[in-house]
Design brief:
Number of helices: 5
Strand order of the largest sheet: 4-1-5
Largest sheet: 3 strands, antiparallel
Shape: rod-shaped
Number of strands: 5
Length: about 150
């Protein structure tokens, strides 16, 4: 757009790229945001030819609203997924609370996916305070328990 200073002295104007000093009678080609229109008109210092540039963020507002709605939908989807997982965990916890038999705990001893402390914890539920500290001793105690009737 073209801006012409109609005043006897130099005047400054805010442009998209920062302030510009316009000498008396001088015409400059600049971009000015629409938010400056009211100030320019009220000052009566300039003649204006052309269109103002849209204010920053104004053209992005609809896109931001769409993105916000998409975020809400995504949050709802994730909350539903989380609720499903919580329900699955609750089922697994109930299953895990069921005491294992000596044979099941012995099977854990040979499973490479089961860590020692998980095995020891399961064994201590069966053996109680007399649970040994070493794996081979725990296995022997569990084998002894497994051979007793009712184990």
């Amino acid at each position: 757009m073209k801006i012409t200073n109609t005043q006897p002295g130099p005047r400054g104007i805010n442009t998209v790229n920062g302030p510009v000093l316009v000498e008396p009678g001088q015409t400059v080609e600049v971009e000015i945001f629409a938010r400056e229109k009211a100030h320019i008109k009220a000052s009566k210092w300039f003649e204006v030819e052309g269109d103002y540039t849209d204010n920053p963020g104004v053209t992005a507002a609809p896109a931001l609203k769409d993105a916000a709605q998409n975020v809400d939908a995504e949050l709802d989807r994730l909350r539903a997924q989380l609720a499903e997982r919580d329900a699955e965990l609750a089922k697994l916890k109930v299953q895990d609370d069921q005491p294992k038999t000596a044979a099941e705990v012995l099977a854990m001893a040979n499973d490479p996916n089961v860590q020692f402390m998980s095995f020891k914890s399961a064994a201590s539920k069966l053996l109680g305070e007399k649970t040994p500290g070493k794996k081979d001793e725990i296995v022997a105690a569990l084998e002894d328990l497994a051979t007793k009737p009712g184990a």
